[in-house]
């Protein structure tokens, strides 16, 4: 039996009646365990130990319900999602910035994919090495690694972007001394 989609069916109670005649018999599969607390199975005319019918439900998300569910997930778990992304992206960002000469800003999607892939492959190695030396992560040590890692990433990006701007502005000789002096005092020699 197939039923049409029941919109707004959450929490609703439904009854399914299956009947037959002596000429048209009906066979229904059932369980002898009571799997659903609020469901009742009544069999009339036959001795039966079944307590539940075997049935399969399928749920089809509509655009409205899927956006509502996504909003609920983001509202309830946004801090956990943000922390997870910060943990996964940090080691890959460090490697790309340390190894690469230029930050590939032209294609942020490729940069994000490379950084995420590196992060996903580096963390298991870090965990392995920590375990091999018989050390343990604590909340403070993991937080410290995360904060220091992102501080290095952000400072490296600021320095590289600043140097890039200075290189462009250095072409005019009158700006050369004052801009370089201001930049070095602001970022490099605090």
Summarize this, please?
This protein is mainly α and 190 residues long. Helix 1 crosses helix 3 and helix 3 packs antiparallel against helix 4. The mean pLDDT is 76.
List strands and helices in order, with pairings.
Layout: E1 30-31, E2 52-53, H1 63-99, H2 108-132, H3 139-169, H4 173-188
Antiparallel strand pairs: 1-2
Describe the structure.
The N and C termini lie far apart (75 Å). 4% of the residues are buried. The protein has a domain of 111 residues. α1 packs across α2, α1 packs across α3 and α3 packs antiparallel against α4. It is mainly alpha-helical.
Q: Taking Cα atoms only, what radius of gyration do you get, to the nearest Å?
A: 31 Å
Q: What's the β-strand tally?
A: 2
User: In DSSP terms, counting alpha (H) and pi (I) runs of 4 or more, how many helices?
Assistant: 4
What is the N-to-C order of secondary-structure elements (H for helix, E for strand)?
A: EEHHHH
As residue ranges, the low-confidence spans are none
- How much is the average pLDDT? 76
Categorize the overall geometry.
elongated
Strands side by side in the biggest sheet: 1-2
Query: What kind of sheet is the major sheet?
Result: 2 strands, antiparallel
Q: Which structural class matches the secondary elements?
A: mainly alpha
- Helical percentage: 55-70%
Q: How many angstroms does the end-to-end distance come to? A: 75 Å
Q: What percentage of amino acids are in beta strands?
A: under 5%
